[in-house]
Amino acid sequence: MLLHDSKFTLIGWEVIDFLEKDQHFREKLHNTDMEDIKQGKLAKELDFVGHHVRTKLDELKRQEVNRLRTLIKAKQDAEGGHEMNHKVLLKQFEYMNHMNPHTFEVEDLDKLIQSATNDLENYDQKRHEEFKRYEMMKEHERKEHLKNLDEEHRKDEEQHYEELRKKHADHPKINHPGSQDQLKEVWKESDGLDPNDFDPKTFFKLHDTNGDGYIDEQELEALFTKELEKMYRPNLDEDDMTEMEEERLRMREHVMNEVDTNKDRLVSLDEFLMSTNKKEFLEPDSWETLEQAPAYTDEEMKLFEEQLAQEESNLNQKTSDLQKQKEELERQQEKLNAQKQCYHLQNVSIDS
């Protein structure tokens, strides 16, 4: 199988296995060589897979988070002197079958935790790159649309664009993610409790929704919904829901960087309580939203448009070459038909 290379991580294998079930992606995969895949040329095809496929990819990420939680729990048990059932772990993490099945130490778990964490970091990086491309493509298409308008309509479109941009930016103050003000707002609006009675330990337990003693990435992202609703509303032209999800991701990454001190992508109660004593929690800086922090630079946009122009040029050249090949085949076919007709007439003359 083309992609089943030993360098691929567990989540990488599962994602590719599932993507192959999508007809469009499967066709692209079978027409792409390994070097192009390694350079990421296949990744843009994710924009065209079905909604159910993207939903499954999100599910695979959640499964990887759960694997990570299982590993950390096993490590805690081992460090506490409790016996580990390493065969169960080996069964869940099938890519570990090259390891010694008879001995399984805390050191092995450390390596696996790092591997699972790296998988998720790569997933986030991929998400960032996809979003950057999405934003650049959106801007490119806007400019291409303007080129096709006359001066009057182009001016109207530019004015409309600026009005939408200002409407989107006109929203209530966004609390710094993970700050006291932000969590108190959740405590009041979502939990229905008095902000004056805010208690970090109680807050943690309320939002550790599965009760495992950690706030994971999905539980953390859910805390930002109220902030996001200030900026984004469905079905309004000025608000882009793809950008809303990227804003949620940025908030989650920021809080994880500030709070997750052991970098296991889970927030323990101790880590959470420790963060509430920091100056950043009590007196945070203002939060820089997406409209204040563009996803790409002018130079990146220039390179992107050059790449699109080159791709279009290559496509036009291929189209031209195929047309020439078609015309040549048609000429050859006409020549062959003429020869057949000539032979037929000669045979008829001889028979006569």
UniProtKB/TrEMBL annotation:
Signal peptide: none annotated. GO terms for cellular component: endoplasmic reticulum-Golgi intermediate compartment; extracellular exosome; Golgi apparatus; membrane. Residues 143-179, 306-338 are annotated as: Disordered. GO terms for molecular function: calcium ion binding; DNA binding; guanyl-nucleotide exchange factor activity. InterPro entries: EF-hand-dom_pair (IPR011992), EF_Hand_1_Ca_BS (IPR018247), EF_hand_dom (IPR002048), NUCB1_N (IPR057576), Nucleobindin (IPR040250). Residues 195-230 form the EF-hand domain. Residues 143-165, 321-334 have a biased composition (Basic and acidic residues). It is a peripheral membrane protein. The keyword Repeat applies. Its main location: cytoplasm. It comes from the Eukaryota. It is found in: Cytoplasm; Golgi apparatus; Membrane; Secreted. Residues 310-320 have a biased composition (Polar residues). The keyword Protein biosynthesis does not apply. Keywords: Calcium, Cytoplasm, DNA-binding, Golgi apparatus, Guanine-nucleotide releasing factor, Membrane, Metal-binding, Phosphoprotein, Repeat, Secreted, Signal. Belongs to the nucleobindin family. This is Nucleobindin 2. It comes from Salmo trutta (Brown trout).
